[in-house]
From TrEMBL:
It comes from the Bacteria. One of its GO terms (molecular function) is phenylacetyl-CoA 1,2-epoxidase activity. GO terms for cellular component: cytosol. Pfam families: PaaA_PaaC. SUPFAM superfamilies: Ferritin-like (SSF47240). Gene3D superfamilies: 1.20.1260.10. This is Phenylacetate-CoA oxygenase. GO terms for biological process: phenylacetate catabolic process.
Length: 321
């Protein structure tokens, strides 16, 4: 009897959930949700949070070497923004019943994914421009639709993140613009950075639609609003006039616009490179994780001090009551 009642309750809950999704309403932490929806959100949001945190490393590498005080303070602010994005996203994931410690352990033990793009090195100052322009540009393309994600805490976190990403994208463009309009050597440095970052930035959108196991369900749940290939198309279309403004060459020599289909025909993405990076064998995977582990160990005293202080405050309140 009880199990039949439970089943009926679950059917009613599922119908209510489906109606909210169909009606473009938001699912909130207190609402019933299918277990698979919860798991998918934890997967995507935690991967996204890890990407923001690991993503601090390639740029932090240039803080001490930025070419002027102004560039240095802009870069510090940008890296701090990424830390903030990670924190909003970890908080959004925590509303789904996973703890920050569980997510952190998964990252530092190498069990969690983070974006492939942060496993490449940044040998020159122009890389700061290419990351801002291409990587943050791709992030904006991918993340603006996530502001409408059906899960409330995720969508709301994304609104603020996207505002900051758009500042990041412009500062990257500006670095590259100055270099590409500078001396021939500076222009070469800008072109070299763009040559190295262009293809990995296309990989940020994930595998092509026919090789993406999660897209269809995530789109049905209105977590994702567009497929990986649709967003990649949009990004390429955005880059083309900007390449012209920069006076730089697009590394994809086969790129052309097909008037008939209204789509960009691109050269072949190196999916083998993509899977190597996802498997942990990219140029900087080991270094990124090692650095993250060390930072976690170095920060142990801060976590202990914060926990001791919280305990002290709790005891004080208890004795005062
Ligand atoms: N890097 C690493 N893993 C990737 C990836 C990439 N570029 N693209 C796809 N994957 C992984 C997926 O996470 C998934 O792994 P899992 O099933 O083991 O969890 C697998 O490859 C299959 O891909 P799917 O397309 O089926 O997966 P999704 O539907 O989750 O789509 C996604 C992938 C487009 C990255 C999507 O998760 C997403 O939009 N995430 C939110 C945005 C995000 O995380 N961006 C990361 C960059 S953050 C950033 O750019 C910071 C900024 O400051 C620059």
């Amino acid at each position: 009897m009880t199990s039949t009642t439970d089943e009926l309750d679950e059917v009613a809950e599922q119908q209510r959930f489906d109606a909210l999704i169909a009606d473009e309403q938001r699912i909130e932490p207190r609402d019933w949700m299918p277990e698979a929806y919860r798991r998918t959100l934890i997967r995507q949001i935690s991967q996204h949070a890890h990407s923001e945190i690991i993503g601090m490393q390639p740029e932090a590498n240039w803080i001490t070497r930025a070419p002027s005080l102004k560039r240095k303070s802009i870069l510090i602010a940008k890296v701090q923004d990424e830390a903030g994005h990670g924190l909003y996203l970890y908080s959004a994931a925590q509303t789904l019943g996973i703890t920050r410690e569980e997510m952190t352990d998964a990252l530092i033990e190498g069990r969690a994914r983070y974006s492939s793009i942060f496993n490449y090195h940044t040998p020159t100052w122009a890389d700061m421009g290419a990351i801002g322009w291409l990587v943050d540009g791709a992030a904006i393309c991918n993340q603006v639709p996530l502001c409408r994600a059906s899960y409330g805490p995720y969508g709301r976190a994304m609104v603020r993140i996207c505002k900051e990403e758009s500042f990041h994208q412009r500062q990257g463009f500006e670095i590259l613009y100055e270099l590409s309009h500078g001396t021939p050597e500076q222009k070469r440095m800008a072109q070299d950075a763009v040559d190295r970052w262009y293809w990995p930035s296309l990989m940020m959108f994930g595998p092509s639609d026919d090789a993406s196991p999660n897209s269809a369900q995530s789109m049905a749940w209105k977590i994702k609003r567009f497929s990986n290939d649709e967003l990649r198309q949009r990004f390429v279309g955005m880059c083309v006039p900007q390449f012209e403004a920069l006076g730089l060459e697009c590394p994809d020599r086969d790129l052309r616009y097909d008037e008939e289909t209204g789509r960009w025909i691109m050269g072949e993405i190196d999916w083998n490179e993509f899977s190597e990076v996802l498997a942990g064998r990219g140029p900087a995977n080991a270094e990124r994780l090692r650095h993250r582990r060390e930072a976690h160990d170095d920060g142990a005293w801060v976590r202990e001090a914060a926990a001791a202080y919280a305990q002290k405050m709790q005891d004080r309140r208890r004795f005062a009551a």
